[in-house]
C-alpha cells in the first residue's frame, strides 16, 4: 500500500502534463492543457535566468560609466511597480515629512565627499541615499493617493505660469541630458539631480502648500543646521583645516588623490573657512541665502529676548561670512539687508495708514543706497571685501575671461546646450596650473541646458520674486510676510550665481522655487478667505 502511494506521488507531475484542455462557459477563461502551463512557466523561468546572465555579463565587461545606462530597464521596472500600486485612502505623508527633514539636515551638515566609493561607480553619499528614499516615497504618494495628486494640481493652478516655467525647466534639463555631447556622463548627473533636486522641489510644493508646513517651520530647522556649521567654522578657523581631517573612517574614503584635493586648506591672504563644503564660496552662498529668513524671524519675533537672539544670529552670520572671506557672501548679506529694509518700509507704508515710519524708511532708502555705494567704492576695507582687489583681483580677471570665451561656445549649441555639467568643459577655461574650472553660474547654466533652459530657470526666479512681492504687500497680518523673505533670498541667489557655478547648494535653490509655489498657493487661499492648510481661515488669522 505504501509503495502504491509513492508511485502515485511520482506519477502526479506526468498526469498533470497529460491533462487535456477543457472548455468552460464563455464568461470563464478556458483551462489550458498541462503541457501548455508547464511550457509557459519554463519560458518565464528561462527568461529570468537569461536576463540575469546578460546583466551579469554587462557588469563584468562594461566600464563603470556605462553601468548607469544598463540599470535603466530596472529603474523603469521599479517605476512600473510603483505606478501599478492600488489606490489607498491615505498617502505616506508622515514618512515624506521625516525624510524631507532628514534631507535638509544631511545636504548641509554632511560633507558630500564622505561617501562610499565602489569600483568607479558614482559615490554613494548620504545626500543621494536620503534623496533616493525621498523620491520613492514621493512617487508612492503620487501613485496611490488621488487626493495627493489633486492637491498638487491645485497648487499648480494657483500660479499657472510659474508652474509651467518650473516644469518646463525640468523637461529641458532632461532633453539636454539625452542630446548632450556625452550622454554617458550626463545621464548619471541627471539621475543625481532627480534624487537631490527635482524630487525635493515637488516634495516642498506639497509640504508647504496642502501639507500645512509653514515657512517658520523650515526656518527653524535651517537655522539650527546653519548655526551648527558656523560653530564648526569658528573652530576650523583656529585649527586652519577641516576638523575631521584625521578622523575619516576607511569605508567613507573616496580615492585618496580626489579626497586630498577636496579637503586641502584654502589660503588667500589667510585661511578661508569651508566647514562641510569643498570651497569657501559655496559655504558663503549658504550664509547669504539664509540671511533673509533670519531677518524674517527677527522682525516677527513675539518677545524682545527672542528678537535679540535672532539679532545675535544675524551678527554671527556676518562674522562667519568674514571668516569665509567669500566676497559673494558679504555682497549677499548686504543685499539681503538692503532689500529687507525696502520691503519692510513699503509694506508698512501701504498697510499702516497714518504711520510715518514706513513712508520715512521708503523715502530715505535712495539716500542710504547712495551712501552704501560710496562706502563700497571709497572705503578700502569694504571695497576689497565686496568688489575685490589685491589677492582677489586675479579671480575677478578670470571671470571676465570666462565670460568672453563662453559667448561663442554657447552660440554653437544654443537650443539644448552641452548637457548638465558639460558646459565648463566646452568653455575650457583653465587655471595657470591646468585645472579646468568655471566660476560664472548663470553662464555655466546656459552652456549646460541651452538658452531655453536658461530662460526657463531665470523666468521661474524672476516671476517668483515679482509674484511673492505682490502677495506680501496684500498680507496685513504680519510685519514682514514670509513672501518677502523668499523673494529677497531669490534676489540674493541672482547675485551669488553671477560669480559661482558650484552645484553644492542646488537643492536649496529648488527648495526656494518649490517654496515660492506653495506660498503663493497659501496666499491665494488667504486672499479668498479660505482655510489655509495647517492654520485657520484667513479671516480668523486676521482677527488674531
Spell out the blueprint of helices and strands.
Elements: H1 2-17, H2 34-61, H3 64-70, H4 72-83, H5 93-109, H6 126-144, H7 146-158, H8 160-178, H9 183-207, H10 215-239, H11 256-263, H12 280-299, H13 304-324, H14 327-351, H15 356-378, H16 380-387, H17 393-412, H18 423-427, H19 441-473, H20 482-497, H21 506-528, H22 538-543
Please tell me about this protein's structure.
- The protein has 544 residues and is an all-alpha fold.
- Helices cover 72% and strands 0% of the residues.
- It has 22 helices and no strands.
- It has helices at residues 2-17, 34-61, 64-70, 72-83, 93-109, 126-144, 146-158, 160-178, 183-207, 215-239, 256-263, 280-299, 304-324, 327-351, 356-378, 380-387, 393-412, 423-427, 441-473, 482-497, 506-528, 538-543.
- α8 packs antiparallel against α9.
- The longest helix is centred in the C-terminal third of the chain and has 33 residues, at 441-473.
- The protein is globular, with a radius of gyration of 28 Å.
- Residues 536-544 have low confidence and may be disordered.
Amino acid at each position: 500500500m505504501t509503495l502504491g502511494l509513492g508511485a502515485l506521488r511520482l506519477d502526479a507531475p506526468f498526469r498533470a502534463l497529460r491533462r487535456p484542455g477543457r472548455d468552460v462557459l464563455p464568461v470563464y477563461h478556458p483551462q489550458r492543457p498541462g503541457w501548455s502551463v508547464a511550457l509557459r512557466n519554463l519560458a518565464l523561468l528561462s527568461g529570468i535566468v537569461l536576463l540575469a546572465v546578460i546583466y551579469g555579463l554587462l557588469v563584468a565587461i562594461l566600464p563603470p560609466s556605462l553601468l548607469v545606462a544598463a540599470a535603466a530597464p530596472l529603474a523603469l521596472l521599479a517605476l512600473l511597480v510603483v505606478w501599478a500600486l492600488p489606490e489607498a485612502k491615505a498617502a505616506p505623508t508622515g514618512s515624506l515629512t521625516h525624510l524631507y527633514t532628514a534631507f535638509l539636515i544631511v545636504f548641509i551638515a554632511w560633507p558630500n565627499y564622505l561617501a562610499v566609493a565602489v569600483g568607479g561607480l558614482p559615490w554613494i553619499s548620504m545626500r543621494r541615499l536620503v534623496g533616493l528614499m525621498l523620491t520613492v516615497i514621493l512617487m508612492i504618494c503620487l501613485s496611490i493617493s488621488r487626493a495627493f495628486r489633486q492637491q498638487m494640481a491645485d497648487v499648480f493652478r494657483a500660479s499657472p505660469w510659474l508652474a509651467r516655467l518650473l516644469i518646463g525647466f525640468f523637461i529641458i534639463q532632461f532633453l539636454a541630458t539625452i542630446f548632450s555631447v556625452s550622454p554617458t556622463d550626463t545621464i548619471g548627473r541627471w539621475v543625481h539631480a532627480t534624487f537631490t533636486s527635482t524630487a525635493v522641489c515637488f516634495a516642498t510644493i506639497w509640504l508647504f502648500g496642502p501639507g500645512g508646513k509653514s515657512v517658520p517651520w523650515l526656518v527653524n530647522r535651517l537655522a539650527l543646521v546653519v548655526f551648527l556649521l558656523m560653530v564648526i567654522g569658528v573652530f576650523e578657523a583656529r585649527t586652519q583645516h577641516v576638523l575631521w581631517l584625521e578622523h575619516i573612517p576607511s569605508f567613507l574614503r573616496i580615492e585618496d588623490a580626489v579626497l586630498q584635493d577636496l579637503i586641502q586648506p584654502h589660503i588667500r591672504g589667510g585661511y578661508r573657512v569651508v566647514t562641510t563644503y569643498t570651497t569657501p564660496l559655496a559655504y558663503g552662498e549658504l550664509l547669504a541665502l539664509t540671511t533673509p529668513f533670519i531677518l524674517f524671524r527677527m522682525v516677527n519675533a513675539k518677545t524682545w529676548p527672542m528678537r535679540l537672539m535672532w539679532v545675535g544670529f544675524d551678527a554671527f552670520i556676518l562674522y562667519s561670512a568674514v571668516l569665509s572671506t567669500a566676497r559673494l557672501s558679504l555682497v549677499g548679506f548686504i543685499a539681503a539687508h538692503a532689500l529687507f529694509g525696502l520691503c519692510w518700509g513699503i509694506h508698512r507704508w501701504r498697510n499702516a495708514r497714518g504711520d510715518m515710519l514706513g513712508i520715512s524708511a521708503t523715502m530715505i532708502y535712495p539716500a542710504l543706497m547712495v551712501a552704501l555705494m560710496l562706502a563700497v567704492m571709497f572705503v578700502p576695507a569694504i571695497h576689497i571685501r565686496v568688489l575685490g582687489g589685491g589677492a582677489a583681483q586675479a579671480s575677478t580677471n578670470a571671470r571676465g575671461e570666462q565670460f568672453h570665451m563662453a559667448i561663442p561656445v554657447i552660440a554653437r549649441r544654443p537650443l539644448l546646450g552641452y548637457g548638465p555639467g558639460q558646459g565648463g568643459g566646452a568653455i575650457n577655461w583653465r587655471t595657470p596650473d591646468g585645472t579646468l574650472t568655471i566660476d560664472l553660474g548663470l553662464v555655466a547654466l546656459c552652456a549646460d541646458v541651452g538658452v531655453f533652459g536658461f530662460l526657463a530657470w531665470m523666468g521661474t526666479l524672476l516671476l517668483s520674486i515679482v509674484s511673492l512681492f505682490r502677495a506680501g504687500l496684500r498680507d496685513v497680518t504680519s510685519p514682514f510676510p514670509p513672501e518677502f523673505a523668499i523673494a529677497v533670498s531669490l534676489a540674493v541667489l541672482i547675485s551669488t550665481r553671477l560669480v559661482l557655478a558650484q552645484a553644492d547648494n542646488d537643492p536649496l535653490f529648488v527648495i526656494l522655487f518649490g517654496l515660492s509655489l506653495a506660498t503663493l498657493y497659501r496666499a491665494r487661499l488667504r486672499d479668498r478667505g479660505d482655510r489655509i492648510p495647517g492654520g485657520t481661515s484667513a479671516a480668523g488669522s486676521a482677527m488674531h
